[in-house]
Design goal:
By secondary structure, the chain is mostly helical. The chain contains 4 helices and no strands.
Length: 89
């Protein structure tokens, strides 16, 4: 897991945060309420998804490079945002 965190670097963390914020903003716009909540949840989910995947022992994520890590962050943010939207209904 440390290799993933070291491999990410500051630039990738910023990109993950931006991806999460954009996904959260879009989810907030679709839901029509609590855009701030959705943005925060999107950022947290995008940042934590690669870490959780690495903790589960999936080493292909680190080997796949930055694009695969960003894609995993995007998918994780979308899934968590869908769960939050379903709970808030």
């Amino acid at each position: 897991m440390e290799e993933v965190l070291q491999g990410l670097g500051i630039f990738a963390l910023v990109l993950l945060a931006v991806i999460g914020a954009v996904a959260g903003y879009i989810a907030g716009a679709v839901a029509g309420r609590s855009k701030g909540l959705y943005i925060v949840v999107g950022i947290v989910a995008a940042l934590l998804t690669p870490v959780v995947i690495a903790a589960l022992g999936v080493t292909a994520l680190a080997a796949g490079g930055i694009l695969l890590i960003l894609l995993a962050g995007l998918i994780g943010a979308v899934v968590v945002l869908a769960i939050v939207r379903a709970i808030r209904k």
